[in-house]
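pls design
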């Protein structure tokens, strides 16, 4: 209360509303600026979170792809062990086999 009396005596009744209006505008601008800074910080944090999510998804996909490739290689090795190394070889040509049989029968 004492402060208001001192301000009223220093600046007078005509200047007091102008000072209050200027002080109100200054406070409002400060709040707007601080809200803008907060929004920018939150936007950047969310962007970093999205980038981290994309990186982890990419790494998970690469890991599962690598393990699938390893499993396919293991299956191929098992098939080669069971059926021999010619398991993946091209099937024999039936015409060639027929000619071989005809030669042997004559």
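designed seq:
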């Amino acid at each position: 209360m004492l402060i208001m009396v001192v301000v009223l005596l220093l600046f007078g009744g005509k200047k007091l509303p102008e000072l209050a209006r200027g002080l109100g505008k200054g406070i409002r601008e400060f709040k707007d600026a601080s809200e803008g800074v907060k929004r920018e910080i939150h936007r950047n944090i969310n962007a970093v979170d999205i980038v981290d999510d994309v990186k982890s998804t990419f790494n998970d996909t690469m890991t599962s792809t690598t393990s699938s490739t390893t499993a396919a290689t293991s299956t191929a090795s098992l098939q080669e062990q069971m059926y021999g190394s010619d398991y993946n070889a091209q099937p024999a040509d039936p015409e060639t086999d027929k000619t071989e049989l005809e030669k042997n029968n004559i």
